[in-house]
Amino acid sequence: MIKAQIPEIKTLLSTPKNIVIVPHKNPDGDAMGSTLGLYHYLKSYNHNATVIAPNDYPDFLKWLPGNNTVLKYENDQGVSKVLIEKADLIFTLDFNAFHRAGDMAEVLETSNATKLMIDHHQQPDDYAKFKYSDVSMSSTCEMVYNFIEMLDDAEKIDAIIATCLYVGIMTDTGSFRFRSTTNRTHEVISNLIKKGADNTQIHNNIFDTNSYSRIQLLGRALQNLKIVPELRTAYITLSQDELDEFDFKKGDTEGFVNYALSLKGIIFAAIFIESQQDQIIKISLRSKGSFSVNEFSRAHFHGGGHTNAAGGRSETDMSSTIDKFISILPKYKQDLSQS
């Protein structure tokens, strides 16, 4: 659908516009890489563009070019609301339903701006006039690259844009090891390196920034690791007290669930993290093969995502959440055994 709309989008972008670019709540590497990559592209045409993130994001993403221009809605609601109200065009990147923008949902929904969605998650809502939605894509950053290419503007991708887009593709593909990584993904990455993305430095900036307290927290998470071997499942729990003990910072638990998934014979992994501030248990789910954690999360934990990576939440305490999780697993015994 988006290809047929490209001429109309080109016309829309042919003169400077007030544009707001929004990632999902608790933005990750793909969310911030795609929004900032698009931001730099739009600024090259003198658009009045602003990235407004619903809330803060991990420190390991704050070196990204343009980070200092990002507004956080949770801290700058007044300014953010004015920008959204004045916007001619709003891009929503790496999410496909307004509730994924947290407290920004209502102001986005009521905005009269033209909406353009770029996203690779399943079951998109129908709020955008222009919708580039493709669940087969590795990342929203790869889609932003394609979007710029569809606009016949690939030559506009410089080292800054390339750096932002490389970050999202690298993080959302698990450093290019997930099944969503295709030959096209590698072709895009090759082109980004040619444009000036320093792959070694980017990797170091994202992954080689561990604090002593984060490593200690990982140790506790691994101590808490449990397995359900007959159902090929492993899970980790982290309480608020444990997070506080190790001076938890946003992003510190990134990737912890993958340690559970790496166990021999395990094809379904989960991590349950208590958040007293939000009064929920945050849940991250991962899988191998055909077992859909997207469907599992949507059915039981108010979430969703991709076939092999999804998130969710529980509004009961940790003990009740784990009891529910364990009680549900036998219903999926056949799927877990066949995956």
**Major beta sheet summary:** 6 strands, parallel
Number of strands: 12
Radius of gyration: 20 Å
Low-confidence stretches: none
Helix content: 40-55%
Strand order of the largest sheet: 3-2-1-4-5-6
Termini Cα gap: 33 Å
What brief labels describe this structure?
inorganic pyrophosphatase (n-terminal core); alpha/beta; 6-stranded parallel β-sheet; 339 residues; 2 domains; 12 strands; 18% strand; Diaminopimelate Epimerase, Chain A, domain 1
Question: What can be said about this structure in brief?
Answer:
The chain is of the alpha/beta class and 339 residues long. The protein has helices at 2-12, 29-43, 77-86, 105-110, 140-150, 159-172, 183-195, 199-207, 212-223, 240-245, 256-261, 293-300, 318-328, 333-338; strands spanning 18-22, 48-53, 71-72, 89-93, 114-119, 130-133, 226-228, 233-238, 268-275, 280-287, 304-305, 309-314.
